[in-house]
Amino acid sequence: MGMSNDASEKKSKKTMAMGDRAILPEGARTIPIYIMGKKFEVPETLTIMKAMEYAGFQFMRGCGCRGGICGACSTVYRKPDDYKLQVGLACQTVVEPDMYLTQMPFFPANRASYRLEDLEGKPEEIFKLYPEVFRCVACNACTKACPMDVKVLDYVSAVKQGNIAKAAQISFDCVQCGLCASRCVGELPQYHFAQLARRMYGKIIAPKSKHLEKRVKEIESGKYGEILKKLTRMDQNELEKLYIEREREPDTSTPGEWMPEEKEYL
Amino acid sequence: MSYTPEMKELIKKVEATRPQRIEKSRKNEHYPDLSLEEREQVLKKFHPDYMDEGRRAVKVGPNKGDVFPAEVVDLLESKTRIDVPRIDLEKVDFETDVLVIGGGGAGTAAALTAQEQGMKVIIATKLRHGDANTVMAEGGIQGATQEGDSPFYHYLDTIGGGHFTNQSDLVEALVHDAPLVIAWLESLGMMFDKDKEGRLAVRHFGGSSRKRMHSAGDMTGAEIMRIIRDETRNCSDDITVLEFSPAIELLLDEEGKCGGALLYSLDTEEYVLVKAKAVIVATGGFGRLHVQGFATTNHYGATMDGVVMAYRAGVKTTFMHSTQYHPTGAAYPEQNVGLLITEKTRGLGAHVLNKHGEQFCFPLEPRDIESALLIRECTERDNGVITPTGRLGVWLDSPMIDVLHGEGTVEQELPAKFIQFKRYEIDISKEPMLVYPTLHYQSGGIFMNAQTETSLKGLYSAGEVSGGIHGDNRLMGNSLLDILTFGRRAGTVAAHYVKSGIEVKKLNTSHLTAFEDELKSAGIEDPLVGPMLLPDYTTDIVKGKQWTAHYEGTLR
Ligand SMILES: Cc1cc2nc3c(=O)[nH]c(=O)nc-3n(C[C@H](O)[C@H](O)[C@H](O)COP(=O)(O)OP(=O)(O)OC[C@H]3O[C@@H](n4cnc5c(N)ncnc54)[C@H](O)[C@@H]3O)c2cc1C
Ligand code: FES
C-alpha cells in the first residue's frame, strides 16, 4: 500500500532512504521513560517524538514540523535525582532513562493587537502595548526554559532599556513555543513582544533597501513587461541558447558593484 | 552520539584534501558542471522520478491514464472519509467571502491580500496556524533585486533549471512579482540580512547565474511565517483562523461553481460546513507520502490533501510525475535523518565529497541533477559512507566555510543547523555532515493560470499545492517566492471575483457521488481513505495489539 513507510516492508532497492520510522542500530537497547507518569520501554536512540510514536501514541497536537522550528512540540521533563526541570523540543531531544515527561502543546499568553503602520519604533510603544514588561523580576527562568537557547531574559532587559534593535537580534531564533511564558513569575508574554520588537526593527529601525525600492519602481513602470513576454514566446532552442550563454556572477563579487558584460536586459 | 571511531577515521580523509580544495575555491576554480546531455543521462539512470518501478497509471478522474508515483495514485484513487448522503448541506456552520484552506505561507498571504480588498476571510488549517513547510524553509527567497540582475535572468535560470518544461505564464508572473514580494515582506517588518546601508545580502544557489538568494539567517521561512501570521492576528476582525480543522471535501453549488468546503475537527471529530463565495486551496505538499520509501524534510501535515479534494471536484493536476529530492538531507545521526541541510551550505562554498574525501560533482548543480549524482556515487560507484544504522551518505564539508569566510561564519550563517548538530555533539564548523537525498517538494499539483484560476469556477490555487511553475525541477528559493507571489495573486483575484457579485446557490455533493461511481466502474477495490490528513507511524507491534482500535484511513 502506498502509505506504508516501514522500510522493512519494502524490498528496498539500493536506495537507502526509509520513511520516518527510525531504524534501530543493531543491538539497540530499550530504556524506560515515563510519558505523563506512565512507564514505557522505548529504544534508547530515539527522539521523544519518535519514542512516543513507538510507544503507540498518534499525534494530533504537539507535533508540527518535526524539524525543530515550529515550536509545536515543547516538552518538559525531569530526570531521577535531579530537582531541575528540563525543557526540550520533542522532535529534537533524545530520550534518557527514567525521564518523566509531558508535552505542552499550548499555553495561554495574551497578545496585543497593533497597526504596524502607526508605530514609530519607540520603546514607549511596546511599553504601552505590553505594560507587563516591567513585571519582570529578572529571575532568568525564561532563559532556562528556552529550548532554542535564546537568552530570553537578555532580550526582555533590552526591551526594558529601550533597545529594540538588540531585543530583535537576541530574540531572532524564537520559535514561539511559549515555554518562557509558562515559567514566568512576572507573567509576561515574552515571545509576543519579542515579535513586535522584531517587526519594528525590520520595518522602522533597520535601513531601507534603496536598490529594492528602485527595482520595484522599474517593475511597476512596466520596464520588464515586454522582454518577459518575449521570453514566454520563445521556443526551447532559443531559450537553451540564452541559458547556456548566460554569464555567471563570480562567487567573489560584491553585489551592487558587480556588473555583467551584457547590460541589455538589466 | 558524535561520530563513531570508524567515521572519524574517514573524516581524516576529508581533512587531508581540504587545504588543496580551499586553495582552488579561492581561485574561483570549480569541479566542472555537467553539460545538458550529461545531465540528461545521469537523471535517466539515477533519479527516482525516471524509474518505472513504483509508478503506475491513474484509472479515474481528469488525469486518467497519466503515470505517477504509486503513493500519489493511491490517493488520487481514494474514497471520501464520509458517507456522502449523511452530509447535511442545510446546516451551515460558517459563512464567509473567502475560505482559505491551509494556513502556511501561501494561504496566509492570500488571506492578507483578500482582507486588504475588504473581504471577510476564514483560514481553515490542519494543525496550528503556521505548522507548515513554510516555517521550515531555511535557505532563502529569490528575487532579482540587484543592479547586475534582472527578471530576465531570473526567468532563464528558472526555466533552465526546470529543463525548459515550466509553464511559461507562471514563470513570468513569478519573476515579475519577485521584487514586489521582497518589498512587501520588508514593509511587514521582515528582518532580512542586509548591510548598514540597507543593501540586501544575496547569494548564489544551485542553478543560478546571479546572486539572488535573500535570507533571514537560516530561518527565512520561519521569519516569513512569523510576520505574516502576526499580521493576520492584527486583522482578527476580518480574518478568522480555524485550527485543527482540515478540509476534507470541496463543496459545489448547483451552478457547478465552488461554494465552500467541509472541514473535520480533529479534536472533536465533528464535521463543519463552511459556505464561501470563493475558495483558495493552499494546502502545501506531499512529503509525508514517503514516495518510494524516502525520508522527507516535510512537516507532519504534508499529505497532498488539496490535490485530492480538487481532483474529485474535477480539477486537473499537472506535473504530478515529478518529485523533488533535496540532494542534502541529513543521513546521520539517526535523529536528524531526512532533515534538510540547506543549499546555502553549498552556496557558502562547502564541497560534497565521497568516502575517500574526493570531490565527484559540481556542488551547485540543479537539485535533481545533484541528487542523481549523489545517488550514483553511493550506489553504482559504491563510494558512500555507511552509518551504524545502515544508511548511506556522502560528506558535506561545512568546515570549509569557516576557512573561506572567517571563523564563526558557520555558526552565524547556519545557526539552526549548528544547534541541531551540537545537540548530538557534532560541531559542524569543525566536522563535516553526512548527507543523502531526501524527499523534499511536490513539484506537481493543481493546474492553474497566472491568475491562480483553476478549471473550477470560484476555486483558486496557491503554493506548493499548484503545479507547473517549476517544471520538472525547482530551484531553491523559488518556492517561498512562488507561495507569496501566487498567494497574493489568489487573494486579490478571489476578492475581485467575489466583488463582481457572486452568489452561492444551493450546495450539493453530486461530484462526490459521481467520483464514487467512477471508482466503482474502474474496478478499484478497497480504495484508501483520502485525503490522508496525517501519516500513521504506529508500529506493527502496537497495531497487532490494538484489538478494538478503529482506523479511518490513517487516523485512529
Ligand atoms: C525543510 C524545508 C526547507 C525548505 N527551504 C526552502 C528554501 O530555502 N527556499 C524556498 O524557496 N523554499 C524552501 N522550501 C520549500 C517551501 O518552504 C515550501 O514549498 C513552501 O513553504 C510551501 O508553502 P505553502 O504555503 O504552499 O505550504 P505549507 O507552508 O506547507 O502550508 C500548507 C498548510 O496547509 C495545511 N493543510 C494541509 N492539508 C490541509 C487540509 N486538508 N485542510 C486545511 N489545511 C491543510 C498544512 O497543515 C499547512 O499549514 C523548503 C521546504 C522544506 C520542507
Ligand atoms: S515539531 Fe516543530 S519544533 Fe518539534
Structural class of chain A: alpha+beta
Query: In percent, how helical is the residue content of chain A?
Result: 25-40%
Percent range of helical residues of chain B? 25-40%
Low-confidence stretches of chain A: 1-18
Q: Regions of chain B with pLDDT < 50 over 5+ consecutive residues?
A: none
CATH architecture annotation name of the largest domain in chain A: Roll
Describe this structure in words.
- The complex is a heterodimer of chains A (266) and B (556).
- Chain A is of the alpha+beta class and 266 residues long.
- Chain A folds into 2 domains: 5-103, Ubiquitin-like (UB roll), CATH 3.10.20; 116-205, Alpha-helical ferredoxin (Fumarate Reductase Iron-sulfur Protein, Chain B, domain 2), CATH 1.10.1060.10.
- Chain A is built from 10 helices and 5 strands.
- A 5-stranded mixed sheet of chain A has the order 2-1-5-3-4, with helices on one face.
- In chain A, a hairpin with a 7-residue loop joins strand 3 and strand 4.
- Chain B is of the alpha+beta class.
- The longest helix of chain B is centred in the N-terminal third of the chain and has 22 residues, at 5-26.
- Flavin-adenine dinucleotide binds next to helix 4, helix 5, helix 8 and helix 15 of chain B.
Q: What is the compact description of this entry?
A:
The complex is a heterodimer of chains A (266) and B (556). Helix content of chain A is 32%, strand content 9%.
Please name the defining characteristics of this protein.
heterodimer; A: 266 residues; alpha+beta; Ubiquitin-like (UB roll); Fumarate Reductase Iron-sulfur Protein, Chain B, domain 2; 2 domains; 5-stranded mixed sheet; 10 helices; 5 strands; flat; disordered N terminus; B: 556 residues; Flavocytochrome C3, Chain A, domain 1; FAD/NAD(P)-binding domain; 8-stranded mixed sheet; 5-stranded antiparallel sheet; 19 strands; 33% helix; 16% strand; globular; binds flavin-adenine dinucleotide; binds FE2/S2 (inorganic) cluster
